[in-house]
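Lab channel / #folding
Pinned by the channel admin:
"Please post every new chain as: sequence first, then the structure tokens as a reply. Keep commentary short and put observations after the output so the thread stays searchable."

First post following the new format, from NK:
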Amino acid sequence: MEDNIVFFPKLKDRIINLGKKALEEKDFIKALKLCDQLKEMNQHNSQTELAAVACLLEGNRAKEARERCEELVFGPFESDEAIEIYISILFQIKEYEELQRSIKRLLTQNRIDENQMDKFQAMLTLSKKVVSDREGGKFQTLDLHNLVENSEPINKQLELINELRATDCTLVLNQIGDILKSSKANPLIQSFILFILQEQSIEKDFEINKVNQRMTWNVTISVDEHNSFVDAILKKLSEILESENPSAFEIAKEHFRHFMTIYFPFVPMPAEVNTWAACFYYIVQQYFDHDVDEEELKDLFNVEYFPVKSAIALVKRFEDEGYFNITN
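Reply from TO:
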């Protein structure tokens, strides 16, 4: 027993150091497991619990983050540092009544200062309006059918997306399902909808049909393949381009990230890292009026020109269809 008492502080430090390293490497699953281990050992503190909340949010597990953050704010630690995160989570997952109760409780406890209240006021006002409209039967369901057919100008579609972000998505799940499985819908608009579902932690299966790929998707499904592919391409572009021309690298990086937003949660096929890195290298060099020939691509990326040419053609088609002129 005495050995255990001596051993635990060292073990705690070891776990904390491993957790910091996992966070630096953005390995949020591992970091969360280490935070959970500290909690099981009763060696956790407000900072390790705050890290656990951050990991849950990164994993699109907002409801679990809400429960853990509530305990952090109102439990033994009474962490004032976590208050703003907790209120933001409640607003994100549209628990408006709980948001109002929590702010009232925190004000009673004198734990919200004037600067924080200024930030919370807009959330509080909107939450009261939504609750009032629901209770009064004034709440109108969004009509999203134009997104299914991609029949409206893109600025009108983006207006609907912004309205959807401020709406409880559980009220329009059938319409959302129709959009996500529509082969006519704008794939970038579909991606924005998926991001909103993640933000609101809507745990429902949806059939996705976009960029000639299909899958059954849920916010709990890992997107590691997508993220790993993005990281691998950016690493390759950095190795080839960043030191040579930092401005070109930044343009290539942002252009590629936008392209992958269109594809989310899929990856382009074939998922060959060198081919797609060569594709965006070629495209960005064109922006700087630098001609790139087959030999240069082969020397830099060890690729054949034909698959790179096909990848370039796909990106150009997306550009021609206006997908790169959209931001949200």
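NK: The CA atoms of residues 109 and 239 lie 53 Å apart.
TO: also worth noting, Residues 2-135 form a domain with the Serine Threonine Protein Phosphatase 5, Tetratricopeptide repeat fold (CATH 1.25.40.10).
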